[in-house]
Amino acid sequence: MSANNPIIRIIENTTIPPSIPTKIFKVSPAPPKSVFGDIPVDVGPQYEGQRVRAPEMYVELGGPKVKHKFELFLIKTLEEIEDGEVIVVGPDLAELKEGESRPYAVIIEAAGKGLDPQAEGVFERRVHEFSNYIQGYMHLNQRYDIWLRVSKRSYQKGLNSFKFIGTVLYRLFKSAFPVIEKLRVIFVTDPKIVEELYPQALKVYEERDRRALGLKDEDVDMFYACKLCQSFAPTHACIITPERPSACGAISWLDARVAAQIDPKGPIQPVSKGRLIDPVAGEYEGVNEAIKKLSNGTIQRVRIYSLFDYPPTICGCFEIATYYIPELDAVGLVHRGYATATPIGLRFSQIADAVGGGKQVPGFQGIGLLYLRSKKLFQADGGWNRVVWMPSELKQKVLDAIPPELKDKIATEKDAQTIEELRRFLIEKGHPVAKKISEKEKAAEKKLEAKSEKVEKPAEVTPSAPPTAIPPIALPMVSAPQPQILSQVPASTSSQAVTIPLPGGITVSVTVPTHLTQPRGPPINIALKGVKVRIEKVVIKRGEVEKK
């Protein structure tokens, strides 16, 4: 049914104008025999990890082609919410154009006497899990990076309205968390409204992150492991500490603590730190034991603050990818929204394919945006001093977290798009990595010069025995040889290959114009300039004394 001028409030009121179609549905009581018997497609955890490929999709919501999209869970007062409402602002699923990518927002509002506003991030991350219960409704990522697809098959089965998706989310949340007394789900598909709400959502995320930055690892006895993404990466689990949030960016240590309290048997579990093995790399005995168990023995060790030695595993929902640049022995960063290739020639999606799936890939890692503000960022491998490139958009977001002396020394796509351009930029700006680059280049030059000197300088033989023991070595004087025309080259060609025998059995082949090789006219001289001859081994043999 229609609604007149509804209001959406994130931080401030946003009134929906009458010109934008808006529908309000009421979630009906669940059928007695089956909780989801009134949903046109199957619903259950068996669909977690499902993928809807481009040829199979009916419509795409959010994703990399769309700038404005977000997902938000808000704790409200009981008076602010009408329980069981599903609101659609903009076109419903059946009214969208097949194959299109659409700006999209999902806002879930909940109320209950025992609900803590600090738990918003925890509930918000469960939207990912519960959405993937719906057959043919693929949900990836979180916050401002959400990417959803509805499959053609599910749409044809009847999944043609957001009221069904809202109903599933309503029932799953109310069932999993009895503390929730009221819940309302809002879907926004109108581009202008999504764009208007987007900055407010970002402020909510920023405030959550700010609260999480006060604690240090040394202040707590317990870390947390999140296995929410194991349906996509069975060997992966995020180890969440006060100074390293989840890779998806949605769960801080505070969020994880609340999650474990609300749902003790849920996907986020406490992990005892145990004995500290390496304070710089962040390796703990208790964490190793936990990750070994959570990965079914696949992962034996994890160093939380290392990029290269036993780095944390990753799924595919991370916000930022790191990548190693061997030519510079440095690290670059790229965020999910950056679609252009990095200096190593790979885009974010290509790097994500390489590092996802619960693998440990030295130098290549998935991290959350908040981790860039941690004082322990990559501390086992140089921290910010090792970072040399990042997109300008990402750099602007975390500019205040970059050490002042490095702000103008880390390149963006505006400064360098290739490794050679990046090398020149780093040397020009005096980045800490530049010193290593210069030292490496000087060492290579000296090595090359040393090789050249060995070739160009005559060998000096210093006999260990008295000089009379070995007679002087006389190198034979060889008269200039005459060029020889290769017989296999046809005379009709415009040029011919000529072999020139040199002392010691060496031959050099050069190509000269045919008319110069004809047996008429004055003789020709061929001078070889700038030629370096490399001698792998010199063998000196004592000659036999001629008997008289």
Automatic annotation (TrEMBL):
Source lineage: Archaea, Thermoproteota, Thermoprotei, Desulfurococcales, Desulfurococcaceae
Pfam families: ACS_CODH_B_C, CdhC
The keyword Oxidoreductase appears for this protein: no
EC number: 2.3.1.169
Domain CO dehydrogenase/acetyl-CoA synthase complex beta subunit C-terminal: 205-434
GO function term, MF aspect, one: metal ion binding
Keywords: Iron, Iron-sulfur, Metal-binding, Nickel, Transferase
Recorded superkingdom: Archaea
EC main group: transferase
BP-aspect Gene Ontology terms: acetyl-CoA metabolic process
Protein name: CO-methylating acetyl-CoA synthase
